[in-house]
Amino acid sequence: MKLWAKILIGMCLGLIVGTLVGPKAVYLKPVGQIFLNMIGMIILPLIFASMVTGITSIKDPAKLGRVGLKTLGLYVSTTALAIVIGLFFAYLFKPGLKSSFEMAIPPVIENQSVSGLSEMLLNIIPSNPFESFSSGNILQVIVFAVFVGLAIQFSGKKGEPFLKFLESVSEVMYTLTGIIMKFAPIGVFAIMAAISGAFGFAVLLPLAKLMGTICVASILQFFLVFSVILVFLCRLNPIRFFKGMIEAIIFAFSTSSSSATVPVTIHCAHHNLGVSKNIASFVIPLGSTINMNGTAIFQGIAAVFVAQMYGIDLGLQNLIIIVVTATLSAIGTAGVPGAGFIILSMVLKSVGLPLEGLGLILAIDRLRDMIGTVVNIVGDAVVAVYVAKTEGELDLVQYNSPEIIALENSEAL
User: Per-residue confidence at 384, pLDDT binned at 50, 70, 90?
Assistant: First the structure.
């Protein structure tokens, strides 16, 4: 049986068991947490090693700059478009109007601070890379990896021993990923059982309209925007793409973490879609922190939702501010569950909306995070395919045979 099928079965069984058992399903949470910790222990070394080797594998400086510009340009463009789509559907469906919410708003999460935009941009450069690793600041680790990769390029032969070491680290991490993924069905089962047991489905009903709006906007981004890029820019069959990404999609949905899904996304892009390892290792880890299409959709819709709830009219200027702020804040959003919710407070604050509205959205945050994470990682893979196709580093035979390749690698895992 394919790995994605095992994960899907685990997810469905988890939902059923959690619903039947109820709050007692929380006892399964440690099992899921152990699996997430196993994934977490390989994220930073994998991202650092794969980013450095990905950069150094592109020997031509002109090509490296070209690949970087293509990647960043498409990431920023799709993120901004995602916010616009979110705003459009928020005004179309008006989820915050005539709601039956009780205005006894629960308190906003404490002990969470969101720095100003300028401070966030300054903090991209790590003053202590070891501290970045220990604190799990993925964006700073990526920036450090970029500088190390460039330094190795300029060092010539003297930098080769260090490069070979990192190449070995990268291969070991990929092998370890395969080992850990054998436990994915069990981990996903435990995670979904704990979530459904603790919250059930009834708690989501009062916010069904908001959730529905997010879903519609996400589907449009998922099947229209991404498919247009694949069909018109890449000249590729989008159905083949989505089949090749099924394992990463299910994993992202169940974990709600773009960062945790990085190893699986790289695996699917390389083995199932034919993206060269150096392109996948450069584009996808970068996208896990700066390409947040699903998060951007949520931020746009949530801002309008809060404004409608409180009867605040957002003018064109404020809508532009939301687009710009949400696009830039996506660069600093960690690819972990709930990070987009915290960053939303900065978006609300930028246009003077009450932060108390966050308390209501918290009820559906986990579910929308699951959907948003899928959109995030699919966007990363779309850009990886586009860059690989335009650089002549996409194996078209492999891309057009995702079912065969996926079967082989699933059995290998």
Answer: very high
DSSP state, 200?
T
Phi, psi of 184 (to 5 degrees): -60, -45
Per-residue DSSP letter, 276: -
Residue 391, H or E segment: none
**CA angle, 135 as apex, 195 and 358 as ends, to 5°?**
45
CA separation, residue 186 to residues 1, 178, 192, 253, 261 (Å): 15, 15, 10, 15, 16
Residue with tokens 């589907």: 219
Which amino acid, residue 383? V
Phi, psi for residue 403 in degrees, rounded to 5? -65, -40
| Sign of torsion over alpha carbons 95, 100, 105, 111 | negative
The C-alpha R_g of the chain, in whole angstroms, comes to 21
Phi, psi (rounded to 5 degrees) for 216: -60, -45
In the block, tokens 């200027």 appear at: 317
| pLDDT, tens only, 212-268 | 999 999 999 988 899 999 999 999 999 999 999 999 999 899 888 887 888 899 999
Domains in the chain, start-ordered, CATH in brackets?
A: 3-412 (1.10.3860.10)
Give ∠ CA 61-166-377 in degrees, rounded to 5: 75
Measured in Å, how far apart are the chain's first and last C-alpha atoms?
Answer: 11
Task: Say how far apart CA 195 and CA 18 lie, in whole Å.
Answer: 7
Q: 275 pairs with which residues across the strands?
A: 394
When pLDDT is cut at 50, 70 and 90, the band that residue 269 belongs to is very high
Best CA proximity match to 13, nearest among 180, 182, 190: 190
CA nearest to 262, candidates 45, 79, 53, 65: 45
Q: pTM score, two decimals?
A: 0.69
Give per-residue burial for 47-70: e unless 16+ CB within 10 Å, then b: bbbbbbbbbbbbeeeeebeebbeb
Place of tokens 């509205």: 357
> How far is Cα 385 from Cα 402, in angstroms, rounded to an integer?
14
